[in-house]
Write a structure and sequence with these properties.
By secondary structure, the protein is mainly beta. It has helices spanning 3-11, 16-20, 87-90, 173-179, 185-188; strands at 26-28, 33-37, 58-59, 66-86, 95-103, 110-116, 121-127, 136-148, 156-157, 159-165.
């Protein structure tokens, strides 16, 4: 086995979150979401997108466009969506045009990122930020595979991760106390309950 083969074999079980996180205060939030796909072949469902193994694939089964949808229970400040593809192994199943949409409900989904891919192999990052570079504050994210290489019909995606900003830190106790203290003569009579 060559060094290159050793490296590829070792990558199938890497802790990707440490490598892919866009910033120090970002975290992978895919486990906090419900994932759905537009279609899948038997045995190659949505669970293959989240198993942390790049040697397994989600394979669509149907007409294009193919979609991967991510639904959160609460609004998240999402920064990017990363997915793994491999043209060398998948050829016509490899996407060559994709876009990402974000929104708070189906009726307000907007396209925030579009990419054309030329025989990709590895992680593709789709930014989910607004025009000023701030994370989008959304309930839903959708990756849409518009076209495949060589006009392939079905698609393969090997892994999918979504990164969001960590929640803002809780105020220190002294700051919390100052939010609830009354001061001055006009408010002093509201300071106690009868």
């Amino acid at each position: 086995m060559s060094d290159e083969e050793d490296t590829v074999a070792d990558l199938s079980f890497v802790a990707w979150d440490e490598i892919l996180a866009p910033s120090g205060d970002s975290m992978e939030v895919g486990n906090d979401a419900q994932w759905t796909v537009s279609s899948c072949k038997a045995g190659n469902g949505v669970q293959k997108l989240r198993d942390n193994k790049i040697d397994t694939v989600w394979q669509s089964d149907g007409a294009q466009p193919h979609t991967i949808s991510v639904f959160f229970r609460e609004r998240m400040f999402v920064e990017c969506l990363c997915f793994y593809v491999d043209y060398e192994d998948d050829e016509t199943y490899t996407p060559n045009r994709v876009c990402a949409k974000v929104g708070t409900m189906l009726s307000d989904m907007t396209v925030v990122s579009t990419k054309d891919l030329d025989q990709p192999r590895g992680w593709i990052t789709m930014p989910l930020t607004d025009d000023s570079g701030r994370p989008s504050h959304v309930f839903m994210v959708e990756l849409i595979i518009i076209a495949n290489h060589q006009n392939g019909r079905d698609t393969h995606i090997r892994q999918c991760k979504i990164y969001a900003r960590s929640e803002p830190a809780v105020l220190p106790l002294s700051a919390q106390e100052s939010l609830y203290t009354f001061g001055g003569a006009p408010l002093s009579h509201f300071n106690t309950l009868r």
